[in-house]
Design brief:
The structure holds two protein chains of two kinds. By secondary structure, chain A is α/β, with parallel strands linked by helices. Chain A is about 25% helix and about 35% strand. By secondary structure, chain B is α/β, with parallel strands linked by helices. Chain B has helices at about 50-55, 80-85, 105-115, 125-135, 140-145, 155-170, 185-195, 215, 235-255, and strands at about 5-15, 20-35, 35-40, 60-70, 75, 90, 100, 145-150, 170-175, 205, 220-225, 230-235. Helices cover about 35% and strands about 30% of the residues of chain B. Classes of the chains: A alpha/beta, B alpha/beta. The structure holds adenosine-5'-triphosphate and magnesium ion. Adenosine-5'-triphosphate binds near residues 13, 42, 47, 60 and 93 of chain B.
Amino acid sequence: MPKAAVLKKDPALLESSKFASEPQWLTDLRQRAWSKIDDLEMPIFAKINYHSWPLLNLTADPGINMSIPQTVVNESAAYQFASVGQIVAKAKLSEKLIKQGVILCDLATAIKEHGDLVKQFLFSKAIHFDEDRLTAANAALVNGGAFLYVPDDVEIDEPINLLQFQDSRQTTNFVNHTLIVAGENSRFKVLQRLATVGETENPAHVMVEIVAAAGSYVKFSALDSLAAQTHSYINRRGYLDRDARIDWTVGLFNDGNTVADFDSDLVGVGSHTEMQTVAISTDRQTQGIDTQVTNYGAHSEGNILQRGILLGASALVFNGIGKIIKGAHGSKAQQENRVLMLSPKARGDADPILLIDENDVIAGHAASVGRINQDQLYYLMSRGLTKEVAQRLVARGFLGVVLSDIPMAEVREQMIAMIERKLVNGQRTE
Amino acid sequence: MTTLKVSDLHVSVADEETKATKEILKGVNLTMNTGETHAIMGPNGTGKSTLSETIMGNPKYIVTKGDITLDGESLLDKTVDERARAGLFLAMQYPAEIKGITNSEFMRAAVNATRPADKPIPIRTFLKQLDHNLDVLNMSADMAERYLNEGFSGGEKKRNEILQLMTIKPTFAILDEIDSGLDIDALQVVSKGVNEMMSPDFGVLMITHYQRLLNYIHPDQVHVMMGGRIVKTGDDSLAKELERTGYAGLRAELNLDVDLVDEDVPAGNGGR
Ligand SMILES: Nc1ncnc2c1ncn2[C@@H]1O[C@H](COP(=O)(O)OP(=O)(O)OP(=O)(O)O)[C@@H](O)[C@H]1O
Ligand SMILES: [Mg+2]
């Protein structure tokens, strides 16, 4: 049994995480989670060994830098919400959306101004604080995040863009939690962009809960590019009521070690999710991605599509878990996990896991772990492309199925640009 | 004028499973200048594709002796992409299929490969040339937006090789059986594309089994390859003579000791 990461339980750490004048219910939730941390195990993901990572190296004396770097200011122009660590750089919705009752703010403000709403959904539907040591740590120590609420029947065309920077200009804790609540029959798109400023080594704990009420439709995209020195734990979970739908498109382009846990709970009858992930590992990086769909509701449908590329001496594991609970009649669970290794030293893995407890269901999987096709590479190079350019083209082609499926052109373009950057950097360190 | 010269070229391949090496080319000599059109004919399995792949720089083929030079400079230590940028082009007998990359994005990358990084071809210029070339080759515009060779018919792949040739504009092109599998109309179209390339600064080497291609693209020299060597060189009339006598006839005439894959196979009714 590998030695698991242990949290040093300094009361000052708990104290430092609290929001200014936070309500008692939250302090109580923190306290309950805090007292359970030691008893709960680290979550287990098949073939992903992250237990020696310093994920729980949190500081009892976190530094706070109030200044907002110019790069953040510049980038935030295209976003409605921007934050650096615990500091909010921007939170601005159009008048129209505000009139419709849409709420977008940082978590601390949400708890103060919309306490009842937050209390109703935070750690109550999608993620539970006592699932494992990491969910408990997030519940006890959450110190930032965003809150988005879209009321019943509200449809929004323009995507809501969230830009969240981990502040590593000093030693501090990044325990982030974003809560998205989709009212009945609401429809909207959200983009979450995660990155790091600064060079200090801090772990990142990022959670996103999406609670999708009956008939709602959320298109959620994420572009993650946390820094090389950041060990990250990213947990994104959807809770879907009757006929709700969430389409996830996640680009995992972090430069540091990452363990990602993406889940959709298809609770309602006829609920539906599409979970698409693209990941690139480079250099000595290890990334483990565990994507799970659980069909509880009858006639629910969940599809997983994952594509990963490896360079250097990196490792990448895709687990795809399709779980069908007894009673989920007529439900569907399909998945496809593929990884492509561009370097002989890279280690990739793609594991479909089907856990099915019902008979009249349709479930299937495809998986592959492959190396770059030398004939394809030769063909491209025979037209004058350098090996690096040819490799990047093949890699992009491999990711193409996911890319061409991304509903938002802006996200698609950003994703392609990030893939290019990550591949170029990865090739440089080969 | 640019000269591509193959001298005393010996080439082996290693069997992928047994790793045993086998000599395929046993001393090939060939000199081509820009402004010239050459053709190579020869029986199946004699080493024609091996020669073209070796000139292009396919790492599967190992040169054990001899040299390949471009204006006197050896190409042997150059990688395939370096040779391509130096002006060589090979229209392959079996081009690869690559999903997820469009034909036009690939060709644009290929054109830009020989340009300075900060001076890529303007998109409009590229598209204009592409339109023209598609037109010459009777190809529909959506062929350029399809994934590279993916799901292309045999004939479409051949056309697509010529489309790339016209787009990239190399100094020397080797066309490996560009006519195989083409119907007569397609053959004319593809030939038109190649003929449009002809200039004093362009040389072409065609590998073919059929004299009919040479009716559309007239060669200055015809070479016959047998048993891993060029055994005879002549003009246009050599192709016609071969059509009559077959390779066995030539072998007898030259007193060669080589095996022919298909000899002693009864030709059925037509062979009476
Ligand atoms: N990569 C390879 N591995 C093993 N053997 C090879 C390889 N390439 C060619 N050969 C062998 O070398 C010989 C010559 O093949 P090549 O393809 O050059 O013939 P060719 O003259 O082009 O024939 P064809 O007219 O049928 O196209 C054949 O016996 C072939 O099996
Ligand atoms: Mg051949």
